[in-house]
Amino acid sequence: MSARGTRSRLSSAALHTTLVLASATAVFPVAWVGLTSLQTDRNTWSQPDTLGTLGLGNYIDVLANTQFATWFANSLIVAAGTTALAVFIAATAGYAASRMRFPGQRPLMWMFLITQMFPAAVLIVPLYNVLSDLGLLNSYGGLILAQCTVAVPYCGWMLKGYFDTIPISIDEAGLIDGLSPFGTFWRLIVPLSKPGIAVTVFYSFITAWGEVAFASVFLQSEGRYTLPVGMATFVSDFTAEWGMLTAASMLVMIPAAVVFFLVQRHLIAGLTTGGVKS
Amino acid sequence: MTTLTTRPEAGAAPAPVPPRRRVRNPFRANWLRKHWYAFAMVTPVVAVLGVLVLYPLGRGIFLSLTNANEMNVGRTIGENEIEPTYDFVGLGNYIDVLSGAEGTFYSRLVWTLEWTVACVTLHYALGLGLALLLNRAMRMRGVYRMLLILPWAVPPFVAAFGWRLILNDKGGVLNAVLQGLGFNGVGWLSEPVAAKFAVIMVNVWLGVPFMMVALLGGLQTVPKELYEAAEMDGASAWQRFHAVTLPGLRPVSGTVILLGTIWTFNQFPVIALLTGGGPGGATNILVTEAYERAFQGIRDYAGAATYGAIIASMLVVFASLYRRWLERQTSERLA
C-alpha cells in the first residue's frame, strides 16, 4: 500500500476516520434494532444502559404467535411480482425510447418523468375505485399493479438513460447479423446492461417491499397484509411490543439484504464495460 | 470515437406532411409500418400507465371539483347500491385552499419547502463527499462502501420503526447519550421544532446512499485523462474538482437532484410512521396532509384530491423549469 506513496499518513488517517464515522452512523440504527431484538426482558427496552437477558425469545414470539410468516410471504410475492413486471415492460419501452424514433417519444419520456412526481396521495382515491371496478382490491395482483405506478416510470427513465450509454454500433452489428430489433435488445443489450438493470431491479424490489400508503389502503384482511401494514399493529397508542417489532424488523431486512448483496456487484460497475472499444 | 448518443440531429426535418387528402391513407399505413415495432415495445407501459395513472389522475381532478366525501360517494353495501349524491362545486375547493381561508395550506407549504431543500441539499452534499472519498484506492474500500450503502437496503418503514425506538423521549438511546454528555434530553417526537429536526435527520440517513452510489457511478465515467491534463497544467485539487469533476458529473447530478427533490417532496413513510405528522400536525408535509384528509376522520375525498392536484401541478412546473435550466446550462457550456 505504501508503495503508492501519494498520500501522507495524516491525510490517510483523516480519510479513514471520516469513513469510519460515516459507516458507524450508517450502521448504528440497524445494529441498535438488532440488539433490542435480542433483549427478552421487556423492561430493558426503555433502558438503553441495561441489556438484561439476551435470547431469541422475541423471534420465536413473532414467528409462532403472529401472522408474520403470512405477511412476509405476501410482501415477497408483491415485491417480486412488481419487480418482474415493471423492469420487463420498462426495459422494452426504455430500449424503444433509446434506439428508435417514433411519434410520441417525447411525450412518453415526459410521462415517465411526470408520473414519478405523482405522490400516492394524488392517485390513491381514484386508484382505489379502478381496482375495485376490476375486482382487484385486497389481492396481490391489484397491489402489484398499483406499485407499478411507482416502479415503471423510474425504471423506464433510468434504463433509457443506461441504454443511451451503450454504443449504437452494437445494435447495428446485431441487425447486420440478422437479429430482429427485439432480438438485438434481448440478446445483446440486456446482457450488456446488467449493471443498469441491477439498479432498477434493486430499486423496484426495495420500493415495493417497503411501500406503505397503497398497501395500507388496498389490503383489507389481515391474511393479505404486507409487512409494513401488519407490523404497524405491534406498536400503537395502546401497546409497544418493541421486542416483537425489532425482531420482525430484523427478519424483514434479510430479504432486502439478500437482493442487495446479489446485485450490489453490478451497482457501481463501470458504465460502459466491455462491448465495442471506440 | 463516434458519438454515443442516438439523438436525432437538430437539422433533421420532420417528415413532410402530404398536401392532399387522398395521400393520407397510404401515409398512415406507411407510418404504422414504419413504427409498429417501437409501438409494440412501448404498448405495455402505455397501457399500464394509462389505466393506472392517467385515468385515475383524470378522475382525481374531477373529484377535486366536487364536494365528495365518505358520506356522499356511491358505494355498494351488500346487495344495495347507493347512488352518489355529491355535487359539482367548480373551483370552490381550490379557492378555499389557495386563499388560505380554509386550513393550513401555506404553513404546510412553507414546511414542505424547508424539508425538501434541507433534505436534498444534505443528501447531495454528503453523498458527493462520500463518493469522492470512496473514489480512490485505499484499504477497506469495499467494506466502507458496503457499510455506507446499508441504509439504502433498509426499507423506510423499518427505518422509521427503528428510529422511533432510538428517538423515544423516555428511554431512547439518543437522549440517554445526550444526558450522559451533560445535555438535557430533547422531545424528539413531541416538540415541533425537534420533531422537524428528527424527520429531516432520518430522511437524510435513508437518502444519502442512493446519491452516493449514483455519484460514484458518475465519477467513474469522468475520463482519467482530464484529471491528468489538469494536473499537468498545474490545477489545484479545488480547481480540478471545480473544472473537471463537477462538469463531468452534471448529467448524473441533474437527474439525481431532480429525482431526489421529487421523492423528498412526496416522502410518505418516514413522516407517517415516525411522527404521524405530529405533534399537532407540525411535521405534516403536503402529501401526508392530503393522505390524512382522504383516510382519517370523515374521509374528505374532494379535499384530498384538491391537495393532490395542487401538489402535482407544483411538481410539474418545477420539473419543466428545472429541465429548461439544465438544458440552457448544457448549451451554454457547449457554445
Number of helices of chain A: 12
Number of strands of chain B: 2
Shape of chain B: globular
Structural class of chain A: mainly alpha
**By CATH's scheme, which homologous superfamily of the largest domain in chain A applies?**
MetI-like
Classify the helix fraction of chain B into a percent range. 55-70%
- Uncertain stretches of chain A: 1-5, 268-278
The overall average pLDDT of chain A, rounded, is 81
Number of domains of chain B: 2
Alpha-carbon Rg of chain A, integer: 23 Å
- How large a portion of the residues of chain B is in β-strands, by DSSP E? under 5%
Helix content, binned percent of chain A: over 70%
**Measured distance between first and last alpha carbons of chain B:** 21 Å
CATH top level class name of the largest domain in chain A: Mainly Alpha
Q: Beta-strand percentage of chain A?
A: under 5%
Question: In the CATH scheme, what's the topology name of the largest domain in chain A?
Answer: MetI-like fold
Mean pLDDT of chain B: 81
Oligomer: heterodimer
Most residues in contact, chain pair and counts: A-B, 102 and 98 residues
What is the assigned CATH homologous superfamily of the largest domain in chain B?
MetI-like
In short:
By secondary structure, chain A is mostly helical. Chain A has helices at residues 9-38, 57-65, 68-99, 105-115, 120-133, 140-164, 168-176, 181-192, 194-210, 213-218, 227-231, 242-267.
Structural commentary:
The complex is a heterodimer of chains A (278) and B (335). Chain A has 278 residues and is mainly α. Chain A folds into two domains: 9-57, no CATH class; 67-233, MetI-like (MetI-like fold), CATH 1.10.3720.10. In chain A, 71% of the residues lie in helices and 0% in strands. Chain A has twelve helices and no strands. Chain A has helices spanning 9-38, 57-65, 68-99, 105-115, 120-133, 140-164, 168-176, 181-192, 194-210, 213-218, 227-231, 242-267. In chain A, helix 3 packs parallel to helix 6 (140-164). The longest helix of chain A is centred in the first third of the chain and has 32 residues, at 68-99. Chain A is globular, with a radius of gyration of 23 Å. The relative contact order of chain A is 0.14. Mean pLDDT of chain A is 81; it is low at 1-5 and 268-278. Chain B is mainly α and 335 residues long. Chain B folds into two domains: 21-82, no CATH class; 103-299, MetI-like fold. Chain B has a two-stranded antiparallel sheet with strand order 1-2. In chain B, helix 3 runs parallel beside helix 7, helix 3 packs antiparallel against helix 9 and helix 7 (192-219) packs across helix 9. Mean pLDDT of chain B is 81; it is low at 1-15 and 18-24.
